[in-house]
Amino acid sequence: MESSIDLIKEKITDAGTAISEVQNVNNIERIVSLLAGAVATYYGLQKKETILGKGLTFVGGLLITRGTTGYCPVNRALERN
């Protein structure tokens, strides 16, 4: 019984470490990304027939993804954590 609990604790610790290695955006940046992404997507959908609208919708989706996952490939390329 004791070894099962130790194994579970170890797995939880490993999962936490893996998540922190994948996330490279802090919480404030995540919130700002979500808000900016929602606004950009909203305005993009209002003008969905134009190139600007399609671009705003695309960028908004990227920002929403960045905010929800906490991962930014640009940060990774710049080696910024």
Overall body shape: elongated
Structural class: mainly alpha
Task: Please write the string of helix (H) and strand (E) elements.
Answer: HHHH
Poorly predicted tracts of residues: none
The largest sheet, given as strand count, sense and whether it forms a barrel, is:
none
What tags apply to this protein structure?
81 residues; mainly alpha; 80% helix; elongated; YgaP-like_TM; Inner membrane protein YgaP-like transmembrane domain-containing protein
Short description:
This protein is mainly α and 81 residues long.
Describe the protein's architecture and organization:
The protein is mostly helical and about 80 residues long. It has one domain (about 1-75). It contains four helices and no strands. Helix 2 (about 25-45) runs antiparallel to helix 3. The N and C termini lie far apart (about 40 Å). The mean pLDDT is about 85. This is Inner membrane protein YgaP-like transmembrane domain-containing protein. InterPro entries: YgaP-like_TM (IPR021309).
Could you give the topology of this structure?
Blueprint: H1 2-22, H2 27-46, H3 51-69, H4 73-77
Helix pairs in contact: 2-3
